[in-house]
Fold each of these.
Amino acid sequence: MTSGERAPAIEAVDLTRRYQLEGVAVDALRGVSLRIGQGEFAAIVGPSGSGKSTLMHLLGCLDRPTSGVLRVNGVEMSGLSESRLAELRNRTIGFVFQSFHLLARTTALDNVALPLVYRGVGRSERRARAAAALEAVGLGHRLEHRPSQMSGGEQQRVAIARALVGEPKVLLADEPTGNLDTRNGAEVMAILDRLNADGGVAVVLVTHDQEIAACARRQIHVRDGLIELDTGSAR
Amino acid sequence: MRGREAFAMALEALRVNRLRSTLTMLGVIIGVLAVVVLVSVGTGAKDAVEEQISGLGTNIILVVPGQLTVGAAPTQSRLSLADVAYLRRVVGDPAKVTVSLQSGETVRVGRTEAFVTVIGTDQSLTGIFERPLAKGRPLSETDVDTRRRVAVLGAEVATRMFGDVDPVGRQVSIAGARFRVVGVYATIGQTFGLSRDQEVHVPVTTAQRMLGVDRVNGLAVGASGPDEIEPLQRKVVDALTARYPGEKFSAVTQTQLLGTIGSVLGMLTGVLAAIAGISLLVGGVGVSNIMLVSVRERTREIGLRKALGARQRDVLAQFLIEAVLLTTIGGVIGIVLGVGGALAIRSFTEVPATITWWSIALAFGVSAAVGVFFGVAPARRAGRLDPVIALRAE
Ligand SMILES: Nc1ncnc2c1ncn2[C@@H]1O[C@H](COP(=O)(O)OP(=O)(O)OP(=O)(O)O)[C@@H](O)[C@H]1O
Ligand SMILES: [Mg+2]
């Protein structure tokens, strides 16, 4: 298992994912091959039900493919145990979801610090790093606010801070602007763009919005569980 | 994830759902409370009875006609004073055999009346039983031989009839006949709920004439040491059976009485504890139920935690600790209330509740075990949730 700067952030070969729904097989992905380089910025677009979220879950090691090979940061995932996969998610991947998924009764600071809890980082260091991450998304003044006391845009920025606090190699965002108005959506995109440009984090985002897709340097079109068009490929 | 973090998370989850946590704990609290209170009442009763029995004196063998088993009806006595004399010859030392003939009678001094237990006995009684005198003298051989109408009063009878006046040398009327008080016993308390300070002792011969019988209720034989008890017991029974072929006699020692009563009360305590244990079990089922609801409600949270890097065992630990915290906090509250309840019972009622450390330790251990046992299934369900499905849940 080698992991190094040379290996692509994500390398997928012929991924398939079949769901069994009341005995009927649903092929959500039918053979997807993909390389995402370190520090790349890509947008996945496609009609509803085409398999975008399914692909994101596989890339993020939340789900296992029915067949195919997936390497994240050079590490082949099929051989990994449940707890090694969890560790990989914790250290290498950051998730941002359409519906934010913040813990409702927990402050912004503690929400952001959560990934570090599972890494065994001590409380004071956790809080310091979480505060810095919130600062980086422009929420240094909202540390003790709870999700219900923040706007949707602010909540999504908290979620981005949480995805970044562990300094991942890849940030996976499934429709991060889907629940936001245009102005807040643009702000979130600006943050992702800056993180990608300054921090060197690879960003893969799923979107329905053409304008937002256009922010990315690479567009991957998915239809019926297959890649239909890929505007660029990794070095 | 460190243990401390898991602990903090679980505590936080319980705090957030404060009312629900409290109600869930209530089942455990009631169960533990019941265990602690009932076990202390049972233990207290057992201790009290054992203390009373050993307070009678040491190395005593009680001889009664018939078979002595718990719940058996008393047999009509056929023992007489001739048998007492016979046993005295068998035992070899007349001072080691005494006799008892009991009857409830009215005692009167002037206008003061009381209903007491009158016991016909003899001079050997005070040498065998623990019966210290406060004033005067005990019954003598001459009292018995000449059927004197003399009496030795229990401490309570003496105060009730005579107040501060010294009763020795004064007259009392027992069942209409006049008796002279020759002595007063020191206070000794009760045995099996009967106050032994309310007894009046008279010579057995006088009692027989008063009651118009030539029988006695039972005999008591004193052994000179613990080693002598068993052979003596056999000797006495064999002698009586030889004298009355085909009849049964029982000779029981204090140790046997203690053993029998102890095991009956121990069983009673066990049954009480088991009933209380069932309510603890019901409390455990409540915990299991609430934890399952909690896992379902927090499906999305579980999915998120896994996406952020929680392992199966981190999630399992979080929910298991939550369940164990629920039952142990409930257990501690139940123990505090139970100890308080036992103390209240002891000070406000006649029931001698005794708090034992083992019952408290057991109650705590059992409540923690209930948390583990009933928390494992919901916690495993939480740990095994598929993160993708969990994240999609609404
Ligand atoms: N757990 C599941 N069981 C069965 N079928 C599923 C499951 N999850 C997804 N599918 C199916 O797989 C296909 C792809 O779903 P997916 O969520 O990846 O689509 P999507 O591209 O993200 O759509 P949208 O843009 O609406 O989010 C769909 O046909 C969906 O019904
Ligand atoms: Mg989707």
Amino acid sequence: MQVSHRIVLHFPRAVTGEPIIYRLAKDYGLMFNILKASVSPQEEGLMVLELSGRDTDFQHGAAYLKERGIRLQPLVQDIRKNDDRCVDCGACVGVCPTEALTLERPTMRLLFDPDKCVVCGECVPCCPVNAMELQF
Amino acid sequence: MAKTLEEINNKIRTGQVVVVTAEEMVDIVAEKGPKEASRTIDVVTTGTFGPMCSSGAMMNVGHPSPRIKLGGGQVRLNRVRAYDGLAAVDLYVGATALPDEDPRNSVFPGEFRYGGGHVIEDLVAGRRVLLEAAAYGTDCYPRRELAAWITLDEINEAYLFNPRNGYQNYNVAVNRSSRTIYTYMGTLQPQLASANYCSAGQLSPLLNDPHYRTIGLGSRIFLGGGVGYVVWQGTQHSPAAPRNEKGVPMAGAGTLAVLGDMKHMAAAWLRGASFRGYGATLIVGLGIPIPVLDEDIAAHTAVSDADIVAPVVDYSGAYPQRQPDVISRVTYADLKSGEIQVEGKTVPATPLSSYPRAKDIAETLKGWIAQGEFELTAPVQAIPGADSGMMMGPMPDNPPQTPESPQ
Ligand code: SF4
Ligand code: SF4
């Protein structure tokens, strides 16, 4: 059976730089389409990609990623900012990998740009008042 | 010429008071100078809205029939542990208290979705809260079990009593390690990839009255959307911390213990909060008016973000190990620009304390004063200042020799 999954990969610092994606293609026969990457040497990284191929190959590929210490997370559909809950504290800005969350200056109010959001979900548990919501 | 507090209160009563926020005061003093500003401006309002763990609610929930003695038993509010070592139906719930069932950090990083801070928010929002208690029973208080819904309206008293709020300046937290860390200063990216700070800077109450000339025991304040009072210096009050040439502390220094009637507070200004991997807490809205009695006070209320420096501290090493190391110092103007330089690296800086809400608080308080609804009080006693030499100390390194009991 052919499958296609959109997933978020969280890389620990140690594995960035290894040809992980190349291996997924070569050793597991998976097709990939990188939607967003924020991976830089010496730092924990994050990549959003679409993987397609045979279901069994995908399972093996996923197992390989986990073995390398990479955390997989299914990509959710949408993320929303609940304006009634947000207190403009700014705590989420530091975890957003794409500058979808920024503070407007000099007012210091939170701006959310859905076009820049890759729906990695990092801001959701980071927000102290649950103002960033996942919509499945 | 110096003004008296009574003159200012008279102006409040007659609607003639001139009140501005601490943010507005920066430009006014820059333009007119402190002397002229002290003549024209009567009151400067400050504000801060940030997570303050040392907060909690004291309550008396009324006696059920038959009566119960909660003291010495166990009490929970929406499953969150409350402190009951007081008289029969007095309770205290602290902002960081958790339900016993919360997995805490056993699945790391824990979520801490609901804690004492959320109980306080629910009460203030008018939502009912489930009180469950177990007691040992006495002749005068025979009941052993209790489950009852309580609401803020129906209980006898509820006052917020926060042993430490309003920190005068604070650390900037960074993470030098190679893994993401989860702290009370928020989530910190590894390898100095993020810096979090938590102060309203130029709007922050004690930074506008660095020597506590007008803020002291008995000062009437904005607390959680209602009216409260400064009741003591806060825990860890450290007025002798190093200060710059303008007298502004260069690290965490003074603190305040505050108290106010929760029945007049609003959930917009008291918000339960969850810090991933750290715990639950309460975001507290606090605002303090400063009477501009003379030129010196006017000059201090003109403090701007560029004048306030904060220490950058490594929360992956120095902080948890209680080492005094400071990596560097940066100003709040730097922090608010969104980027600071740390060890030659450009690091994105994000706040945890809401500047827009701090400004809303200062504006609200300004409105109350301008409309004659809020008068200022003179402290009945000053809180200890820099000359007291007071500095918080560490816990003495004094482990018990085994086997030894506390008696
Ligand atoms: S999900 Fe949140 S953290 Fe991730 S890109 Fe979107 S806004 Fe940023
Ligand atoms: S962390 Fe939450 S409350 Fe704070 S600015 Fe972001 S969305 Fe708003």
Amino acid sequence: MKQLIELDINNRVYEVAVDARDLLLDVIRKKVGLTGTKKGCGEGDCGACTVLIDGKPELACIKLAIACQGKKITTIEGLIQEGGALHPIQQAFVDYGAVQCGFCTPGMILSAKGLLDRNPHPTEYDIKHELSGNICRCTGYKKIIEAVEAAAQVWSKEGVK
Amino acid sequence: MFLNHFEYFAPKAPEETLELVGRLGSKAKILAGGTDLMVVMKAKAISPEYLIDINGVEEFKGIFCEEGKGAVIGTNTKLAEIQFSEAIKAKYPALAYAAGEVGSSQVRHMASLGGNTCNASPAAETPTPLVAMGAKVAVSSLSGDRELPLEEFILGVRKLDLAEGEMLTKFILPEPAQKSACRYAYMGRRDAMEIDCVNMAVNIELANDSETVMEVKLVMGSVYPRPLVSREVPALLIGQKLSDELIEKAAEAAQGEAKPIDDIRASAEYRREIVKVLARRLLKEAYAAAKGV
Ligand SMILES: Cc1cc2nc3c(=O)[nH]c(=O)nc-3n(C[C@H](O)[C@H](O)[C@H](O)COP(=O)(O)OP(=O)(O)OC[C@H]3O[C@@H](n4cnc5c(N)ncnc54)[C@H](O)[C@@H]3O)c2cc1C
Ligand code: FES
Ligand code: FES
């Protein structure tokens, strides 16, 4: 039985008809039409489906959409800045060559945002530890870590949101 | 990978939750973080008819830590909150550390302390240090609450001392004794996202001389169907001042008690070796920390 629920995604409220068993990932991609959030393993292992829920990184592939009513969901599309500019973490990923095929990138960047919002001065260990749930099969991670370190610098200087 | 159909309930208060748990019985499952439940439901390993989502119940969340009075942790407190809690890091560092080593950042922001225990996996991270610290759990139903030691609550693989109509509501941690320390360690193939092949916690309490062992509890995970509390280590060490030889003997005793199995993560033989390595290391670390060096 479908029911109408409201989901706040990137500060816009979407009314969607869902079944209790519908997963947040499928609703975001297929019903809302935001395809930046990726589907990898579907089992919680790879981090491609990472979104922020009330600012914290969570896995949309093992989250019920119906359980997200009243919460603030942020997907990669929500990081866009005024005038369409890239978010500083996105810019750092571009500058440091931390994107190859790009499949892991939305999840990586949202995990990095979750980390930097909580801890704007992470050590290399903090970055590795808190990003360990995002798997990249292309880059070898070095450039990703450098990009997050660089974004943290900008963060401290400019106090980005 | 669709889930089978179920009916979804999102109670807002403890009584409402207990009423649902009582009425729906074994056809229902409690949904906390869902990091275990959603995965097994997607694999169609189980197909509950009802889900009771407890995330809307504030009373099931939170860390209540008072000077000199131990701590109470609500069942649905997220592991990330425990990992980063200044109060838990100061008073129960082994628990904060274990919570921070579960899965990944995303998993820790979703997963609850109660879910880690109720999933009753022998490889679970947090039950090991909680048992070593002497934690108790509160189990509630419409007819009231009961408290029991965590080590009696977990009976075996996916088995709990939980009757129909009951749910876990909180963890009760005793105040750490003066001159005591608890330490946790684990071994897996890689640090992140890896289910442990062995984990262990050691809690040591010293006498007034800061050298003689008064109490010691060594708990092993992943080497038995439930957290295994060593009987031989206290028999060897209580009343003694620890030396390298004595620690070696105790580590060998723990190794003898472990009953690991072969599985995809490690062989029984390897696990037994690791038990000795971790026991030696943790006994040394906890002893030094309890002495205050
Ligand atoms: C990618 C990944 C990596 C993981 N890595 C680790 C790891 O390294 N170490 C580790 O220990 N675990 C790991 N896990 C397992 C899991 O994350 C933990 O066991 C977690 O603590 C479960 O908590 P939850 O709140 O998500 O439980 P849920 O999935 O919501 O519930 C688990 C079970 O407990 C029951 N339950 C929950 N709360 C209660 C309650 N209050 N009363 C009665 N029954 C209840 C549920 O009905 C269900 O059967 C991992 C999982 C994933 C997906
Ligand atoms: S798709 Fe969600 S973790 Fe892999
Ligand atoms: S850039 Fe291809 S998976 Fe990371």
Amino acid sequence: MDERKQSGNGIPLLQLRDLVVEYYTRSGVVRAVDSVDLDIYKGEVVGLVGESGCGKSTLGMALLRLVRSPGKITSGKILFKGKDILTLSENAMRDLRGPEISMIFQDPMTSLDPLQRIDDHFVESIRAHDKHISKEDAIKRAAELFDLLGIAPDRLQDYPHQLSGGMRQRVMIGLALALDADLIVADEPTTSLDVLVEAQFLDLLKDLRRRYNMTLILITHNIGIVAELADRVAVMYAGEIVELGDAGPLFAEPLHPYTDALLGSVPNIKLDEELKIMGGQPPDLLDPPAGCRFHPRCPYAMDRCREEEPPWQEIQPGHWAACWLYAEGKRETLHG
Amino acid sequence: MSLRSYIITRILMTIPMLLVLVTLVFFILRVMPGDPVLAMMRPGTPKAYLNELRHEMGLDKPIMVQYVDYLWDLARGRLGTSLAPVRGRPVAKDLWAKFPATLELSLTSFLITIIVGVSTGAYAAYKRRSAADYTFRLYSIIIYAIPVFWLGLMFQLIFGVYLHWLPVAGRIDDLALAPKTITGMYLLDSVLTGNWPSFVNAAKHLILPSVTLGLYLSGIFTRLTRSNMLNSLRQDFVTAARARGISENRVVVRHALKNAFIPILTMMGLQFALLLAGAVLTESTFSWPGLGRFLVERIGYRDFPSIQGTVAFFAILVAVVSLLVDILYAYLDPRIRY
Ligand SMILES: Nc1ncnc2c1ncn2[C@@H]1O[C@H](COP(=O)(O)OP(=O)(O)OP(=O)(O)O)[C@@H](O)[C@H]1O
Ligand code: SF4
Ligand SMILES: [Mg+2]
């Protein structure tokens, strides 16, 4: 990653700066994404992992400015190719959705309009962004993509319910590719697929990223998928990114106790302590704990953790974490 | 199941329903006080004469014999002849003559119902919790709670009596103005024959009754559309379409509304019976010479065959429409194949 940063590859494709997304619910304001900073570079696959409810999908939807009501992006910047998309008009934003940033959703069963044939999905999407492309050309394009995705092109005339789950998810990828998206956000793309189909789908993703130098944000709570695909990993906890680094080092030597617990790699602590780590619920985002949000579940929590928010620090080159252990110079606690 | 066998099954399933209905009507008519002879004759007519008439009409036969005769006729598609006011006139002929007026009123009303109901419901859902949403929801409750004849009377008062904008009764000012009969529906016939004056005149007559009936039924569709639309706006494919940069209009109409429309369509079949019931009341309010008014008039005469015939005709109509709706449903929703 460092190389990329320094190789004059220019500015990152996507830069999140202090991004805050809040849901205005009856019972109060839920800060689902809290002051997130993140850079995504062209051609990389970044895994975004974290427990259910930590704000991964909300972050993904924020990139398209499609956070569901009652959610709102309340502050921060989303710079895409250097331009803040939060200042764009709704029309300009629409031009961006698809050709620039594309999204693949968790459930391919429900992400396609059941009353619309697959080819019409392609025609509609392609022509929404370029009226000069004829229907025939759009279908031809779709057929080529189907070939690439390993689906017989005659399935284009099918309705969504006639395709299997795996095929539908391929169609979703195909729709993103048809528009030549620069950044694809995939939110739990394999969760609803069975293991075999999941493996095929991951192979396809790997193949596509090689072929297209695809930039992908892969949202998942399946660490295995991230390990297989991601160049870098961002770990989210209770609306915040708590650790970020290249996949290899992060998996081998996680810096943040939460990541450590998430990976289940807790070699030098006793079993009862391990249970203490895994136990507990993620905090209520309506009223998150003061200081480090992880402190009620953290086996290393110190007094300071309960009062002050830990700083976001680059502990090793390209490997960031927000944890007091490092400010206090107690690194050895985690990795003896 | 093929579509054909589905249709045949559906038709067969209608038969018991129809049988129950005509049986009920048959016996209710005969236990109700009054009979055609009494209804026809002045009070004080000699009893012997009345009985003679009853004998002629076959009303003195045992009721079970009358019932079996009736069913036998019905099974052969014979609706019998009128007892009063014109004895011996074939019921089928009357039904056939009155039907186009009812059909014209029903179709126009239904069009108004759908346009008003679906657009208000869809808009309310799209602008959920806005002033428009609350207004349309209130509208849907009030319009449904108002008796349809009262609504009709109010329209007659306002647009007919006070403002003199529109006629309040009948289908046309002068029968001489009526277009050449093709379908029997004045509006359609005047278009088909290019008869402009008759079109304008017929349209003016049609406005108040069809708006009355159309608005009355629209409340149900406002609510139905709203709830289905809320549901379909929440669906992933709507978000996914937005995420591909499809225009908001298209997302809402072509994806959300179209999907919301499928359950609405089912409801339409069910509402058709209500439409006919509403038509009966509206026709009476506006002296609209259709089947509804015919039915009410013949109830006054205790003209049993006409009443039975009209009810059976309505029932068959409802069955046919719900079958058509089902076929349309299968056509629109690719997931359903019979
Ligand atoms: N429509 C909503 N209204 C209110 N709160 C919401 C809404 N959607 C999400 N939230 C809240 O925002 C937080 C983040 O939700 P989000 O769906 O982004 O989490 P996630 O990490 O994607 O979880 P999962 O792994 O289950 O998909 C949750 O705590 C949730 O309570
Ligand atoms: S800051 Fe403290 S509580 Fe938070 S993860 Fe680090 S050690 Fe645990
Ligand atoms: Mg999610």
